[in-house]
Amino acid sequence: MSRAFVKEQDGDFAEQLPDRPDSGQPNYITPKGLEALKQRLAEMLREKQQFGEDAAALRPELERDIPWIEGRIAKAIVLDPKKQRADEIQFGATVEAVDEHDKRHKFTIVGEDEADAPKHRISWLSPLGKALIGARQGDSVIWKRPAGDLELEIEKVSYR
Fold first, then answer.
1. What pTM, to 2 d.p., does this model score?
2. Smallest Cα–Cα separation from 124: which of 136, 110, 135?
3. How many Cβ atoms sit within 10 Å of the Cβ of residue 125?
4. In the CATH hierarchy, which fold is given to the domain comprising 81-159?
């Protein structure tokens, strides 16, 4: 085999992973999201302890992610959705809307660490999150998407 296709080793066999990105934005998070981060950290610490000295070689993501999650928890700014203004879309709002094609949508605006598109949990920093924040029931907003802009009419705003 040609040496051109063999990865050089520095004597350290741990896979080098890229750093986790940081948006530089405030780490707003719901109480439920903060608890989930703490649980994830506890699980990772248990796993690292189980691997012992071999943790860095066997699970390099633990070495990278544990300090990152600790930092996210330390910088967390907890915003309780129940304490938001009920008449306006803000962090933590669940929004029901209909688009220009009469398709119904439901989204919850959460922090970066809680965002999960398949579960319709969108980051407050996303294009849709930014379009929705500040709107009220009955307002129309433009969702700027790679697939093209889509107009949404806000039908309901609620906080859990």
1. 0.80
2. 110
3. 16
4. Chitinase A; domain 3 (3.10.50)
